[in-house]
Amino acid sequence: MLEKVIFVWAISALLFVFVNACSNLENSRKKTLVPIAVEKAFNTKYSPDIPRTWQRHYYGYEAVFIQNNIKYEAEFSANGEWFETEYYVSEKEFPQAVLQKIKKQRPNFIITKYEIEITPKGIFYEVDITDGEIEEELYFDVKGNPAADLYED
Question: The whole model's pTM is what?
Answer without folding.
Answer: 0.75
